[in-house]
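RNA-binding S4 domain-containing protein
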Amino acid sequence: MIKKEIPIKTEFIKLDQFLKFVGIAETGGHSKEIIAEGVVFVNSEQCFQRGKKLRPEDVVVIDDYELKIVG
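Predicted structure tokens:
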């Protein structure tokens, strides 16, 4: 498992934007596909919401990545 801390400068970032921001998805459409596949977990819960608001301390797990959002 590769663990990384990802800093954001805003109050929140939406899940689909986050996947593009960290380079997991190439486009918004690619983000949508990844999320629809059910392989994204936010705080240990499977997430299918593209617009899910991620805030500091949230943890996103996808494949071999554990990405913690920090403010």
